[in-house]
């Protein structure tokens, strides 16, 4: 059974899945890196290449193969889900938002091949391949991610990105749905750019 058939067989049955249902679905699909090697692509100077494997109104599943670059700190909008390390190992850095609305680093975790870890709603994290490993990860989220926030810690800024942008600061203006400049000692937005352009994954 191929990846698409496995995904359909398991995920078509889920409606507004709970945390436990998402985790069990990922385990039950039993997808390994060999199943996906034929669809992995080049990251082309980005932290990762991603490929959408399954999507409906309630769920999306993606595979990502990583370069040696780290992604930016980001959340997953109103979505939650699980990340499974299929190959290599990942450094996963977890943040909390400070009083200015910027991420403050809490801790790093090394996630080895085979590990499944949770990405909570509104949780902020970043990832990168550990120790030069060939990192491949499988991601299962509910609902499909939209309104993801990407943070630039040096610029004290946050950007709501379009659905076709990954976890990095957008290079194309159309991918910047909302850009918020945060200043020391203040709350909310000082500088705001608004665009209504959005492109699906």
Architecture overview:
A hairpin with a 4-residue loop joins strand 9 and strand 10. This protein has helices at residues 3-11, 19-29, 33-36; strands at 48-55, 60-66, 80-87, 90-97, 103-111, 116-119, 124-129, 136-142, 149-152, 157-161, 176-181, 191-194. By secondary structure, the chain is mainly beta. 12% of the residues lie in helices and 38% in strands. Mean pLDDT is 89; it is low at 185-201. A five-stranded antiparallel sheet has the order 1-2-8-3-6, with helices on one face. Strands 9-10-11-12 form a four-stranded antiparallel sheet, with no helix packed on it. A three-stranded antiparallel sheet has the order 5-4-7, with no helix packed on it. It has three helices and twelve strands; from the N terminus they run αααββββββββββββ. The protein has one domain: Jelly Rolls (Sandwich), CATH 2.60.120. InterPro entries: CDO_1 (IPR010300), RmlC-like_jellyroll (IPR014710), RmlC_Cupin_sf (IPR011051). This is Cysteine dioxygenase. Belongs to the cysteine dioxygenase family.
Q: What pattern of helices and strands is seen along the backbone?
A: HHHEEEEEEEEEEEE
State the assembly state of the protein chains.
single chain
> Biggest β-sheet: count, sense, barrel?
5 strands, antiparallel
- How many DSSP helices? 3
- Give the count of structural domains: 1
- Radius of gyration from the CA trace? 17 Å
For the termini, the CA-CA separation is: 25 Å
Shape verdict: globular
**SS content category:** mainly beta
Instruction: Please bin the fraction of helical residues.
Output: 10-25%
CATH superfamily: Jelly Rolls
**Which percent band covers the strand fraction?**
35-45%
Low-confidence stretches: 185-201
CATH fold title: Jelly Rolls
Rounded average pLDDT: 89
Give the strand order, joined by hyphens, for the main sheet.
1-2-8-3-6
CATH architecture: Sandwich
What is the tally of beta strands? 12
């Amino acid at each position: 059974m191929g990846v698409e058939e496995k995904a359909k067989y398991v995920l078509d049955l889920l409606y507004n899945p709970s945390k436990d249902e998402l985790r069990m679905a990922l385990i039950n699909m039993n997808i390994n890196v060999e199943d996906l090697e034929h669809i992995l692509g080049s990251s082309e100077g980005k932290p990762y290449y991603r490929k959408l494997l399954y999507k409906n109104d309630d769920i999306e599943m993606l595979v990502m193969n990583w370069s040696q670059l780290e992604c930016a700190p980001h959340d997953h909008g109103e979505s939650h889900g699980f990340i499974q390390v299929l190959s290599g190992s990942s450094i996963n850095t977890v943040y909390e938002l400070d009083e200015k609305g910027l991420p403050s680093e809490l801790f790093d975790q090394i996630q080895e091949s085979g590990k499944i870890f949770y990405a909570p709603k509104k949780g902020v994290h970043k990832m990168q391949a550990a120790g030069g490993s060939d990192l491949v990860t499988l991601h299962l989220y509910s609902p499909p991610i939209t309104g993801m926030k990407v943070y630039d810690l040096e610029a004290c800024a946050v950007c709501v990105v379009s659905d076709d942008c990954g976890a990095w600061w957008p290079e194309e203006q159309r991918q910047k749905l909302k850009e918020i400049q945060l200043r020391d000692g203040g709350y909310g937005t000082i500088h705001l750019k608004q665009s209504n352009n959005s492109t699906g994954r």
